[in-house]
Amino acid sequence: MDFAFQITKWYLQNKRDLPWRNTRNPYHIWLSEIMLQQTRVAQAMPYYDAFTEAFPTIADLANASEEQVLKLWQGLGYYSRARNLHQTAQKIAFELDSKFPETYHELLKLKGIGQYTAAAIASFCFDQKAPVVDGNVYRVLARFFGIETDIASSVAFKEFFTLANELILTENPGLFNQAIMEFGALQCVPQNPDCTICPLNSACLALAQKKVNQLPVKISKTKVQQKHFNYVVFEDENKKTVLQQRSESGIWKRLYEFPLLETAFVADEKMILEWLLKSEYKDQITAIEELTSEEILHRLTHRLLHIKFWKVKLSGILQNAISHQAAVELPTPIVIFNFMTRQWN
Fold first, then answer.
1. pLDDT (0 to 100) of residue 221
2. Distance (Å, whole) CA 219 – CA 154
3. pLDDT tens digits, 167-212
4. Distance, CA of 36 to CA of 132 (rounded, Å)
5. Per-residue DSSP letter, 220
6. Where are the alpha helices (DSSP H) in 267-311?
7. For the chain, how far is it from start to end, CA to CA, in angstroms?
8. 33 catalytic per annotation
9. pLDDT band at 302 (very low <50, low <70, confident <90, very high)
């Protein structure tokens, strides 16, 4: 079976009409690929539209402030992607005269552009023969060729990259890359794909060996951390509140949040009061109210956050307090933004 022919034929008949497929502009391709990392197409689409409207060119993105970029990114998660996007836009705009490098290896030198994104830009925009290897590609190749290598292992990328490089079309590498990714997204899906309508079913080893739902092999070695976050929503006599900027390390770097008490288990009002009595606001406390009767569960890649919000009324006027509107306009973790919009609207 001609794997490349069959998969590209399927693609031309079944592909979705996505805005980044109607351009060879490397800025737009790059933006879409960064957004689509660990994000579904339906979720990424409005962000792509918002970014291309707010920043039509890479120079526009480069000239934006980090806070503008993070605010527009809010809700996509993995905020380091947005920071790298911004910094790389500045490098391309200010040092490379807004011109993208055109080769896979030159693209790899840019911050935040890894092997997958470099291959996508190089092949889609510049017809470079560089195979993409993402989760969809791992799945399609592992099943069709019956590969049982753990895709989380250190040797997996090289093995799958080499195989994809042997299969990729020389004359139209971008078409092949788009096809195999789309095939994994729509046809060879993670759970219970419909193999009866698959154009590759006559030669698929996973199907022949009844291993479709066992491949690809991925052995997770990362333990999920459980954390308890208690956010204190201060309110002074002017109905203003306090937000603080997170540090340069850890999750949500440089985003804004309410003052935080992190505990080893579910906190109660007594624990919150004990913490408050050690704070600079200890003499102004007039009331404490639990705003969330149950913990909000917020999942990150390797963490499960148990979040509660507490309202603390204070006498007097706080010098560092801001209005509700100003708080909503700051870049915050989406769980805090959602809380603010529910609580204050």
1. 74
2. 12
3. 999 999 999 999 999 999 999 999 999 999 999 999 999 999 999 9
4. 14
5. -
6. 269-276
7. 59
8. yes
9. confident
pLDDT of residue 163: 97
Residue type, 259: P
Burial of 46 (C-beta count, 10 Å sphere; 0-12/13-18/19+): exposed
Asked whether 27 and 100 are in contact (CB, 8 A), the reply is yes
CB 233 within 8 A of CB 312: yes
- A 10 A CB-CB count for 307 gives 19
Calculate Rg over the CA atoms of the chain.
24
**Comparing C-alpha atoms, which of 206, 203, 201 is closest to residue 217?**
206
User: Exactly one of 33, 102, 274, 294 is catalytic; which is it?
Assistant: 33
Instruction: Please state, in angstroms and rounded to a whole number, the distance separating the CA atoms of residues 101 and 109.
Output: 9
DSSP structural state of residue 322? B
CA distance 173 to 71: 36
Contact 47, 235 (CB under 8 A): no
Scored b (16 or more CB within 10 A) or e, 137-175 reads bbbbbbbbbebeeebeeeebeebbbebbeebbbeebbbb
User: Could you please report the per-residue DSSP string of 11-44?
Assistant: HHHH----GGGS---HHHHHHHHHHHTTS-HHHH
Token pair of 39, please?
């994000």
